[in-house]
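Quick illustration, no need to memorize.
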Amino acid sequence: MNLVIDEGNTFTKIGVFDKGDLIHSDSSKNPDKSLFSKLQQSFSIDQLIISSVKTDYTKVNDVLDKFNISNINTSHILNASSFLPIKNNYKTPHTMGKDRIAALVGGFKLYPSTPLLIIDSGTAITVDYLNENGTFLGGNISPGLQTRFNALHQNTEKLPLLNQHDHSPFMGLCTDEAIWSGVQNGILFEVEGYINHFNELNNSTKTILTGGDAYFFAKNLKNPIFVHLNLVLTGLNTILEYNAKNK
């Protein structure tokens, strides 16, 4: 069985895979060692992969010690030198977010030979495009939903700190409504614009949403989309298996 760890900006997501199937998942802001001890007691884990956007791990032992993991036969740290089943055309692959790489591979695993627009919505929003040949053609990064609310509050004297609101008007008639409307409608227009653009380029394009705010977009976008909350974990598991075969 494979243990997959996705160490993100806010949460660490953990998955256990058996023969390609996700059989257990968990998420924590600060996972302690006891969590991984319980996992090893419950599952016969012999392979491990970790992806981190916070820590530049260079030694597998650093990962094993940090999470108190033992008896692993194969371990892999996702990095710019990892073997990938897709072609990465990024000019600076060593600077590309590991979660973006994993999401692209996860999309390729789920929908091979399909042009994909992959939108990962969390602390940041990443919009990445993979063509039908499995070639990454580029992507963009912008502030995520809550990051935009935080920025308005932190960079002004009087604007309040707000969170996502399910019933915001299209145009606000008070300051709170104006912030809700401006942030939420603005981000929806942004994402709809990307989807429309790539659908015009290729009407076979599938849009995949993942990340903590995926359901916000799923509820409010007009275009057809596919939500896969475990897309990054699926991609990491695929990369682990791919590197084990290509050593």
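The first strand starts at residue 2 and ends at 7.
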